């Protein structure tokens, strides 16, 4: 499949994840910080009271790694986990989950039209490694804001290297030294991993993404990066749906 400078055409991304689904957990498991950093982003949402009485959305849940991070910080919340790739969802559903976790096969862009209680409102949304893969990130940020209850939090857990030359150099080295060869070794297809490399290089710097979140109507927007080798490479971008008082 053709991967151009910005990565795959965004409509083809869920299909590429289907091809990579069987190998996904082993590949991300080889990154020592992967699960801990998802958990860090979920923690940064500061979900109160173990999530009791709250509804959370895991947007682009994949094989459930980000769902597990949400469940760890909010074991009493109801969690709706959505993904467009059937193969990734199949791997997620094969894991043990409490009845409070539900998986939904849908493009995130179509969620609001599905009706029923999957359309919100939510008290918190985690979108881990999703936004960069969407054709219209601004439209989706506005849709996330509309899905949130006033005061609810959005955590965008995402790669962003553009603001740091050192991070960009490390990203090239990690992709060509580890991620692309490991992906080839496991799946005999490098499409998804070259998409990852290119799409991260083409994606927003941290300042630009914070600006997009403000423009989408989120408040108190800020970001924090990760420790270790992912410093200035992976970040949690946080924003909140305005409360009624803030709107007046
Ligand atoms: C890199 S994986 C991340 C999975 C999980 N959040 C994690 O942290 O491990 C990105 C996921 O986003 C999904 N995805 C991409 N575009 C999507 C869309 N438009 N709607 C819903 N899911 C999408 C892919 O199918 C894939 O499972």
TrEMBL record:
Biological process, per Gene Ontology: methylation
Keyword Transferase: yes
InterPro entries: SAM-dependent_MTases_sf (IPR029063)
Keyword Transferase part of the UniProt annotation: yes
Record GO terms (molecular function): methyltransferase activity
Keyword terms, alphabetized: Methyltransferase, Transferase
Name of the protein: Methyltransferase domain-containing protein
Organism: Mycobacterium helveticum
């Amino acid at each position: 499949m053709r991967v151009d400078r910005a990565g795959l055409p965004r409509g083809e991304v869920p299909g590429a994840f289907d091809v990579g689904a069987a190998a996904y957990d082993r590949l991300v498991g080889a990154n020592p910080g992967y699960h801990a950093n998802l958990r860090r982003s979920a923690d940064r949402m500061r979900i109160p009271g173990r999530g009791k009485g709250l509804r959370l959305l895991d947007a682009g849940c994949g094989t459930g790694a980000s769902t597990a991070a949400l469940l760890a910080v909010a074991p009493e919340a109801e969690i709706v986990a959505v993904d467009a790739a059937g193969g990734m969802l199949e791997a997620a559903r094969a894991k043990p989950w409490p009845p409070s976790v539900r998986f939904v096969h849908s493009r995130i862009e179509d969620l609001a039209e599905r009706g029923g209680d999957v359309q919100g409102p939510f008290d918190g949304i985690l979108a881990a490694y999703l936004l960069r893969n969407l054709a219209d990130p601004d439209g989706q940020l506005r849709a996330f804001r509309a899905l949130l209850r006033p005061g609810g939090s959005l955590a965008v857990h995402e790669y962003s290297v553009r603001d740091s030359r050192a991070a960009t150099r490390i990203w090239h080295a990690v992709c060509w030294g580890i991620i692309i060869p490991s992906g080839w070794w496991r799946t005999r297809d490098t499409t998804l991993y070259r998409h990852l490399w290119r799409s991260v290089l083409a994606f927003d710097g941290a300042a630009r993404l914070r600006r997009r979140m403000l423009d989408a109507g989120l408040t108190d927007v800020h970001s924090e990066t990760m420790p270790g080798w992912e410093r200035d490479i992976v970040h949690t971008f946080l924003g909140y749906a305005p409360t009624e008082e803030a709107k007046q």
